[in-house]
């Protein structure tokens, strides 16, 4: 995997991170007051997954990736950076306790954040298959 591809994957992730933060702002100030916290979380997750798939489509189309292993590596880079950002920023900058951060991963309590991570991991591969 070339350094150029890793750099492009990182830059695409920066776009995803900005979209994720903006999505969170919209959720907290627009969606949540209208539908409540639980429904707001699900709606916001669906919106962010859609954004990830759009960015994946554009990334695959622009970069021209076709190799499955490279597509999965890009997805793994995005997933890893997101987890690092979520826990690093969430804990060390925002001051959230680890328990609160981990709560978003509890699918048994209706928290569907894991779908975002799954979409990041598989998005490039799925969009490459659709692009063909």
Would you kindly provide a written description of the structure presented here, covering whatever features stand out?
The chain has one domain (3-131). The protein is 83% helix and 0% strand. It is built from 5 helices and no strands. Helix 1 (3-35) crosses helix 3 (68-93), helix 2 (37-63) packs parallel to helix 5 (114-131) and helix 3 packs antiparallel against helix 5 (114-131). The longest helix is centred in the first third of the chain and has 33 residues, at 3-35. The radius of gyration is 15 Å and the shape is globular.
Helix content: over 70%
Radius of gyration computed on alpha carbons: 15 Å
pLDDT < 50 stretches: none
Number of domains: 1
Strand content: under 5%
| Largest sheet: number of strands, sense, barrel closure | none
Q: Looking at the structure, what is the overall shape?
A: globular
Q: Which class best fits the helix and strand makeup?
A: mainly alpha
Measured distance between first and last alpha carbons? 21 Å
Order of helices and strands: HHHHH
Total DSSP E strands: 0
Mean pLDDT: 94
Assembly status:
single chain
What would you say about this model in short?
This protein is an all-alpha fold.
Write out key terms for the chains shown:
about 130 residues, mainly alpha, about 85% helix, globular
């Amino acid at each position: 995997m070339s350094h150029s591809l890793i750099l492009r994957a990182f830059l695409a992730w920066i776009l995803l991170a900005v979209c994720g933060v903006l999505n969170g702002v919209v959720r907290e100030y627009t969606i949540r007051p209208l539908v409540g916290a639980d429904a707001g979380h699900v709606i916001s997750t669906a919106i962010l997954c859609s954004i990830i798939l759009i960015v994946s489509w554009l990334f695959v189309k622009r970069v021209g990736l076709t190799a499955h292993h490279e597509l999965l590596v890009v997805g793994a880079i995005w997933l890893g950076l997101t987890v690092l950002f979520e826990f690093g920023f969430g804990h060390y900058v925002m001051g959230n306790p680890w328990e609160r951060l981990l709560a978003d991963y509890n699918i048994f309590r209706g928290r569907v954040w894991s779908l975002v991570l799954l979409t990041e991991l598989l998005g490039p591969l799925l969009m490459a298959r659709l692009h063909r």
